[in-house]
Design a protein that fits this description.
heterodimer, A: mainly alpha, 2 strands, about 65% helix, about 0% strand, globular, B: alpha+beta, two-stranded parallel ribbon, 4 helices, about 35% helix, about 25% strand
Chain lengths: ~220, ~230
């Protein structure tokens, strides 16, 4: 279902007919087709790893990197991959870049790898990445696909960061590990737990939908 | 065979599919191997550093450490390359090459997954003197209190693991107890809201000390301080 939404909102003919890369491919992922707030894709990492701003940022960047690399490769191989085996090929390409990301994060910091845990490997099944490969990269030039991936990646990172910042601030009283409130502040532990992820996501979705509704009214 | 009976996209031949999958597979495998080889030295270095840091945390007041393996004669011998195979402990010494404590790695089932910990043992006072969680996937905000909760960590400032008079076993095995009911120096006070995780830590240390403490105590003379400071 989620893949369908992705297809609908960006397989739109205005973008598929164009061959030269345009800034619109980049801009649309940031706001109009934001992968989290509008398409509501890839909810598993969004809810699980957005408990602190730092984790959210790291997860967003890791996903954006995989998205960018797989989009470029899928797009450059789009005439080489037969239609019947395309999904298998995409998964293979995505899994490769996820494994590479996993090693790179381990090489950057053991602590970071510890806190992201199993969710790095789960980028493989993030439907955002597969939907971009299937709906966009397999039909568009390398340049457009790279721009599309960058936009979606930045949009995803931005959304995760929005959630992570709120949850860390309320649930832990800190922001990037820096204490923000006086010692008397009682942390809302629920915000760190999965339930808090749902609350925060709901509030952000509310804000986004309210903004969209107001825009269409005018 | 007329044109109209054909599907709108002609099916690709098996050879084409095979070529695409094998081709992509080889390229992907190559990329992974290159990254693995490229990052391996740094990952190993970071892991070793993290372990070293943990050793300094669990044995306060040391200035150098060494890695030791128990050989067939029940002697602890220093080893250079850290192979994971075999039974390994880490000893910490002060500036005068005096043995301050021994760090032991232990693991066991927690709430979510295996918890790996490191604890420091002081043969002189026969006490656990430090504790650190190396790896855990416990629930954030609840189970992971085992890493941060100050009153829980206070358990490990001096946990009694004295040996029986015949030096063959620990007098009172370390046991986890309910929060606020700790009465004896060998009990681990649990955490409310992290019951399973904190009990797991008590049991891991209980089982591990039952095995290691007699061995380390009886052979603590065989630890020789490393020549160079690391």
């Amino acid at each position: 279902m989620s893949a369908k939404i992705g297809e609908k909102s960006n397989g739109g003919f205005a973008t598929t007919l164009k061959n030269s890369p345009s800034t619109d491919e980049f801009i649309k992922g940031l706001w109009r087709d934001n992968p989290v707030f509008v398409q509501v894709l890839g909810m598993c990492p969004v809810l699980a790893v957005s408990n602190t701003a730092e984790n959210a940022l790291a997860m967003g960047l890791a996903t954006a990197f995989v998205l960018l690399m797989s989009n470029i490769l899928v797009s450059s191989l789009r005439n080489f991959i037969p239609k019947q085996v395309r999904i298998a090929s995409y998964i293979l390409i995505i899994a490769t870049f996820v494994t590479i990301t996993d090693y790179v994060i381990q090489a950057i910091s053991v602590e970071l790898h510890k806190s992201l845990g199993a969710f790095i490997s789960l980028i493989v099944v993030n439907c955002l990445i597969l939907s971009r490969a299937e709906a966009f990269a397999s039909k568009n030039s390398i340049g457009s696909s790279a721009l599309d991936a960058l936009g979606m990646g930045v949009g995803f990172t931005f959304a995760l960061f929005c959630l992570g910042a709120v949850r860390e601030l309320l649930g832990n009283g800190t922001f990037f590990g820096l204490h923000f409130f006086p010692d008397t502040f009682q942390e809302w532990i629920v915000m760190i737990l999965p339930a808090g992820g749902f609350f925060t996501l709901a509030i952000w979705l509310l804000i986004f939908n309210a903004a969209k509704a107001r825009k269409s009214e005018v | 065979m007329s044109e109209s009976t054909m599907t709108y996209t002609s099916p690709a031949s098996s050879a084409k599919m095979l070529r695409a999958m094998v081709g992509i597979g080889i390229v992907c495998a190559l990329l992974i191997v290159l990254t693995f080889e490229g990052t391996l030295p740094r990952i190993e270095k970071l892991r070793a550093e993290a372990l070293q840091k943990a050793i300094f945390k669990v044995i306060p007041g040391i200035t150098k450490t060494g890695t030791y393996q128990l050989n067939a004669n029940n002697d602890f011998v220093a080893i250079e390359n850290e192979e994971t195979a075999g039974e390994i402990v880490y000893a910490g010494f002060d500036d005068n090459d005096r043995l301050i404590g021994v760090a032991v790695e232990a693991s066991g089932q927690g709430y979510a997954d295996i918890i790996r910990i490191l604890y420091g043992y002081d043969p002189e006072s026969q006490k656990i003197i430090g504790f650190y969680v190396l790896e855990s996937k416990e629930t954030p905000g609840l189970g992971d209190k085992i890493e941060k909760d100050p009153s829980f960590l206070a358990n490990f400032a001096g946990l009694d693991v004295s040996l029986e008079d015949d030096l063959s076993s620990v007098q009172n095995e370390v046991v986890p107890v309910k929060n606020g009911t700790k009465e004896n120096p060998w009990e681990v006070d649990g955490i409310t809201g992290a019951t399973i995780s904190s009990r797991a830590i008590g049991n891991i240390i209980g089982a591990s000390t039952q095995y290691w403490v007699p061995i380390i105590y009886n052979n603590s003379k065989t630890f020789k301080a490393p020549a160079v400071t690391n």
